[in-house]
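Morning F.,

Quick status update on the modeling queue. The single chain you submitted on Monday has been processed. Sequence for confirmation:
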Amino acid sequence: MSAALARIESGTERMVDGEFAFTASDFRKIAAMLHGDAGIALPESKATLVYSRLAKRLRALGLSSFREYCALVSEVGGIDERQRMLSALTTNVTRFFREPHHFDHLARQTLRPLIERARAGGRVRLWSAACSTGQEAYSMAMTALTAAPDLGGLDFRILATDIDPSVVAEAVAGVYGEGAMAGLTPDQRGRWFDAEAKAGEPVWRANKALRDLITFRELNLIGDWPMSGRFDVVFCRNVVIYFEDDTQERVWSRFPPHMQPGAVLYIGHSERVTGPAAEVLKPDGITTYRMTGAQA
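Structure tokens below.
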């Protein structure tokens, strides 16, 4: 066996050329931690991405190799850095009213009976299950308040959760630069956001009406779900696609017990509900599912 082949098989061959040694063994350790912590499957084709996103952490920590970094995040004392690693490796692509057909469905086919229930004194709950920096949840709130401006005084609330505490903090602040606001009309900006300045640049802060409707929390979709009540609307879009097939089925199967009969689930454009959950979540539009009266 050649020395090069031996290095490949032992996992000591460099996967990426760069200032830090990054071997297949390092990659496997990082991938295993990401899978165990967040359920995300990381193929070897992502090695360059992993290197580029984590190299800056090695520089900040004064480390000389990914072997040292793996040792750090594997220790009890490295839990904070492990969270930073998770934040660096998870994808947070989002924008206001992304996949607009879902918000059209929400406005035209879903909200009316929920608003009537709330006005009659009933409880209504919506959930943004992978809210990232908050644009999805604020889009849900804008859609709901446009349909019924009096919702702030009713028992109508939105829960927005994400595994990454850094993006949850951004969502709570609700402050967005010009680039993030590009998808909103001038009327939407003026109605739902307050203009401010940050470091001399214009920014926009979600106004009190929006923020009062939403509660932001940290939550891992493969961890504990502490919510006791059931939801009438769930947005879980473009996150389950990063899980392996069996993990996807397990996550989908967790939603029905947390949903009211007739509740609606909106998922990402590349996702499909599979496994036992498909018995009770029936298609009701483009990547839209409605809960039947039974539970999975």
